[in-house]
Each structure stands twice: as C-alpha cells, then as structure tokens.
C-alpha cells in the first residue's frame, strides 16, 4: 500500500495562490493515478483535479479549470496542486488520493475509486 501526506494549505485572500503537495511513501508511486478532492463544510467531498500514473493526462472539474494545475514528480513521489486566482468558494479541506486500478483508462472522478487518502489540508480563502 501507499501512505499519503497532504500539506501546503493555509489562509489566503481572494485572488491569491497556494500550492498543495502530496507526498507518498510505500509502494512504487508511479503505479498510482492521483486525484485531489475537496470538502467544504456541509458539502459532499468533490473531485477537483486528477493526474494519470505517468503524468501525461490530467483532468479538472469545471469549477477549477484554468485556475488549478496538477503535476507530479514520480522520482520524488510527490503530486502538487497549484491553485491560482483563488475564490472564497474554494474554501475546503483538500485531500489527495491514490487510485491503484491499473486497468482504468481514464482518470477516476469518484472518491470510491480511490484506495488511499491523505489526512487533508485546510484551504481558506477570505473575501
């Protein structure tokens, strides 16, 4: 299995930027596609961005497209989420997650498709 540790959250003003990191340990990291999810108070956890095992393919929720960029460094076993032009509605706990399904041809969008989760990091955007 793989262990994930999220970091990089914080408090930022509207229009600001943050960079989240997900550090993995355990099994070979390049065997896993990775997604970032977020959960705001009172809301369901939702998909934000995902990246394939090699990093060639990425996918974004419409709400973050054009503002967030996901990337990975398999040599360092890390995935990053660069978040620009942040809005108050981006306020949430952000979680990275790893998908071990090697047969999956597309990036999984459902949280049930992910096997391992980080502990979450809080992002707060003030207006």
Structural write-up:
The chain has 127 residues and is mainly β. 0% of the residues lie in helices and 50% in strands. The protein is built from no helices and eleven strands. It has strands spanning 2-7, 10-13, 18-26, 33-39, 46-51, 58-60, 68-73, 78-83, 92-99, 116-117, 121-126. Strands 2, 4, 5, 6, 9, 10 and 11 form a seven-stranded mixed beta sheet that branches. A hairpin with a 6-residue loop joins strand 5 and strand 6 (58-60). The protein is globular. The model has no long low-confidence stretch (mean pLDDT 96).
Q: Which of globular, elongated, flat, extended, rod-shaped describes the shape?
A: globular
Residue fraction in strands: over 45%
Q: Care to count the β-strands?
A: 11
> Radius of gyration from the CA trace?
14 Å
Relevant terms:
about 130 residues; mainly beta; seven-stranded mixed β-sheet; 11 strands
